[in-house]
Amino acid sequence: MGKTFKTIDEAVIRFAGDSGDGMQLTGGRFTETTAIVGNDLSTLPDFPAEIRAPAGSLAGVSAFQIKFSSKDIHTPGVNPDVLVAMNPAALKVHQKEIIPGGTLILNTDAFTKKNLKFAGYESNPIEDESLDDYFTLIPVEMNKMVTAACEGLDLSPKLVGRTKNFFALGILFYMYDRPLDATEAWLKKKFKGKDAIIEANTRALNAGYNYGDTTELFMTRYKVEKANLPSGNYRNMNGNLATSLGLLAASQRSGLKLFYGGYPITPASDILHTLAAWKHLGIKTFQAEDEIAGIGSVIGAAFVGNLGITATSGPGIALKSEALGLAIIAELPLVVINVQRGGPSTGLPTKTEQSDLLQAMYGRNGEAPMPVIASATPGDCFFVAYEACRIAVKYMTPVMLLNDGYLANGSEPWQVPQLDDLKDFDVTFADESNLIDGQFMPYTRDKKTLARPWAIPGTEGLEHRIGGIEKEDLTGNVSYDPDNHHYMVATRAKKIEAIANEFDPLEIFGNASGDLLILSWGGTKGSCRSAVETLQADGQKVSHVHLRWINPFPNDLGEILIKFKNVLIPEINYGQLIKMIRSEFLIDAKGLNQVRGKPISSSDIQKTAKDLIG
Q1: Taking the CB of residue 605, how many other CB atoms lie within 10 A of it?
Q2: pLDDT value, residue 229
Q3: Residues forming a β-bridge with 591
Q4: Is the peptide bond before 267 cis (omega within 30 degrees of 0)?
Q5: Do residues 455 and 434 lie in contact, with contact meaning Cβ atoms separated by under 8 Å?
Q6: What is the pLDDT of residues 58-113, one digit of tens each?
Q7: 560-611, pLDDT tens digit by residue?
């Protein structure tokens, strides 16, 4: 019986192994090739916080999941069709999530007595038939295979053993009819000058592909047709890179010099790394000694007329909070990016969460309102970063941008936008026209935006006071007057509220009224949209609204909410947006709250929605 091709709409695969097995690299190469093939895709990297957990331990398992499809998809999937497990620990951690009847590709050479015991197995699951009734089991001696493939190369056994991830990648390329040439070209570029390394990994890749072709273990190959995406130029994009590009675009469109000051912290550090490589584009980066120095440098940069940017995660926001109050009272334009992770404290540094929303809203002393905007997908990080910069400058205010670890590290096909299609980004600095009777008044305000003028220090005639003590209206002089303080507090709040006048009407996916509205923010958009599509296909009267701006809320949100019998708000926290919605609009919204360090699944949203509707 010959091998057959089966065309499928979508597939979910997961690579898992020890931290040193190269699972993130393997997943990245499969993702890049899948993007070249033209499938829609979504990824979920999942790696441990430890720099190097003990080899073979459950805590040291690193995984990479990708869902790819010939149709439009919104999530990286939940339960994989295929698991590639490079050792017993990887199988132990991920086995329970594989679909019934799914495929397990196991590196049998790693299933030694020592590794089995370390992973908590009393017997070898490959040999005791405990997997046979539930999965399609494909055992492969990967270490031996790459040793044979690399015979004759002047490399140590250890280096040869490291190529086994490319052997596994070759098998998956064969299973899903993916070409090898893009990965072979990448190897030549990545390891230029290291010919033996290039040759070893190339041999391992081809050995894996040929193993799938020649063995009878893989009798069915799968084909996922090219997705019908809008025409344009696409590239595979992750959230941190998209954020960096959005900041760069804001600098280019505005003509402002971009200054980034920050302290490395997972999962935001890649933004600093990326921007630091763009010095030739006029970007200045400063790696500060701590979070407080980072925000201090950005406040100074904004004061002298730069586009000031900093990025961190929840613990860093806590340290920056006093300085953010200074930026608010001084009314300086800067953007603070919080790539959220599991908390509190150090928490889960490499896992995703949405638990910093209330911190972004209220985590400063005094009445200190700040605009809060959140990205929805990895590619959306570009547009949100650009918009955050534009609003910061137009309204002379710090802006909080909320991403999360899932968006920052995940990727999707991204249509490269034209800069001319972005909103205009005009910048006006104070000049002689801002003088009143020959005196510069730093707290006069634009009638529409309530923004104060941006005066560059050292400009003759525009000398003024600035600092953290309350300002007198117009003059900016220090003032302890009770009425003035109340007026300035109210004015700063009204300025933030006025930003909502910029927003387009909210998009309602579905009918404008019905049994249930699912309201989402941040990285839950994909799961919510996927759930609503399924529920609508089942005939349910369910709609979906996604919020990009959390502060201020869109002006039409209240009118939308009251037209639905029920409102469900899924969040990767213990209920934060729901508190704000209940308080602001006095509706009995219900929450779906999971704080597991993972995205909420579409199936969980569907189940909760059906329970609510009854």
Answers
A1: 26
A2: 87
A3: 569
A4: yes
A5: yes
A6: 999 999 999 999 999 999 999 999 999 999 999 999 999 999 999 999 999 999 99
A7: 999 999 999 999 999 999 999 999 999 999 999 999 999 999 999 999 999 9
**In this structure, are residues 9 and 69 in contact, taking their beta carbons and an 8 Å threshold?**
yes
pLDDT digits (tens, 9 = 90+) for 482-505: 999 999 999 999 999 999 999 999
SS3 68: strand
Listed in sequence order, the residues at least 6 apart from 153 whose beta carbon sits closer than 8 Å to its beta carbon are 160, 196, 199, 200, 203
Average pLDDT score, the chain: 96
CB atoms within 10 A of CB 293: 17
Rounded to an integer, the average pLDDT of 17-29 is 95
Name residue, tokens 């490395």: 264
Residues with Cβ < 8 Å from 429, sequence gap 6 or more? 305, 453, 454, 455, 456
519, exposed or middle or buried, with CB in 10 Å at 0-12, 13-18, 19+? buried
Report the C-alpha gap between 295 and 316 in whole angstroms. 10
Q: Which two structure tokens, joined as six digits, stand for 287?
A: 């790696």
What is the pLDDT, as a whole number, of residue 53? Answer: 83
Please say if the pLDDT value at position 395 is more than 90. Answer: yes
The amino acid that residue 563 corresponds to is K
Please spell the DSSP secondary structure of 120-173, one letter per residue: T-SS-TTTSSTTTTTSEEEEE-HHHHHHHHTTTSS--HHHHHTTHHHHHHHHHH
- Go through the chain and tell me how many residues it has: 614
Contact residues for 34 (Cβ-Cβ < 8 A; gap 6+): 41, 66, 68, 178
Whether the bond into 139 is cis, omega within 30 of 0: no
Please answer whether residues 339 and 264 qualify as being in contact, where contact means their C-beta atoms are separated by less than 8 angstroms.
Answer: no
- Dist CA 395 CA 85 (whole Å): 52
Q: Is 461 helix (H, G, I), strand (E, B) or coil?
A: coil
Tokens of 199: 């040759």
In the DSSP assignment, the letter for residue 65 is E
Reported as a single tens digit per residue, the pLDDT across 77-86 is: 999 999 999 9
DSSP assignment, residue 471?
A: B
Question: What's the order of all strands across the beta sheet hosting 514-521?
Answer: 542-547, 514-521, 564-571, 590-593
What's the pTM value of the predicted model, to 2 decimals? 0.95
Q: pLDDT tier at 1 (50, 70, 90 boundaries)?
A: low
**Pick the residue with more confidence: 521 or 54?**
521
Would you give the end-to-end CA distance of the chain in angstroms?
Answer: 50
Q: What is the secondary structure of 372-407 as a DSSP string?
A: EEE--STTHHHHHHHHHHHHHHHHTSEEEEEEEHHH
Residue whose structure tokens are 């933004």: 271
CB 500 within 8 A of CB 555: yes
- Which backbone phi and psi does 403 adopt, to 5 degrees? -110, -175
Number of CB atoms found within 10 A of residue 597's CB: 17
> Residues near 219 by Cβ (< 8 Å), separated by ≥ 6?
1, 3, 4
Catalogue the E-assigned strands of 426-558: 435-436, 439-440, 514-521, 542-547, 549-551
d(CA 15, CA 608): 30
